[in-house]
Amino acid sequence: MTRVAAVMVFSLCCVALAPLPSVAEEKVAVTPADCRRLVAAVPAADVAYKGGVDVHGKKVVGADLPGGGNDLKLVPDVIAFTYTVNPAGYGPSKSLAQQSASLNSQSGAISAKQSSNSAAQVANQQAIAAATQQKAALVQAATKLAANSQALKDNQAAQARAQAAIDSGNAAAPQLSQQGTSLLGQQQGLASQQSAVASQQSSLAATQGNTQMPVAKISYDMARNVLTINGQPIGSADESALADECRKRGLQ
Length: 252
What we know:
Elements: H1 3-17, H2 32-38, E1 78-85, H3 92-142, H4 150-208, E2 213-221, E3 226-229, E4 232-233, H5 236-248
Antiparallel strand pairs: 1-2, 2-3, 3-4
């Protein structure tokens, strides 16, 4: 807005503030604040900064000297780096790690069964021994009882129960032993598989342990605010698609 226009607007505001003739008893009031909002401030010509002169208009040496702060480039215009991955963490190596974890889990389950089986065999042997000892004591006591007495009948019934316990324990013993043998065989088989997996993992680690495979070259142009992958600009839709592909390939 020119000075002339500003003066005209200001004049109109001042006229609006003057007493107005009554028109159907309606009055319009414009405050000085309204005028200030309507009239834009116009700075004087000597207010704006001018390089090479002081406040009095005299020539001075500029502040931007060679080697000054404006010549320093603390951050490059383009930041670029290559994203790499170690292939040992994917593909066959990942599959072997999963196999190893599965074998370890199976081995733990079989170990628990072996412990249970061993405890069952010990308990069965103890039960057989206790029943045998009880029967022997009953047989010895029976010799002191009168023939056809009730006490003798009770003794004989107790001997029968003890013998039944002995027979049950003896029948269970081979089955428990067979189960223990089977569990031992399973554990040995798992150990062999674990050894094979460990050998493959060791071989992969030796060949790929320190390998770095380039995946993409990522570049960010700070001046243009452009992010590219392998020279191609990437946007929100592209980022989502790339993330989906990464997840499909197990790259988390």
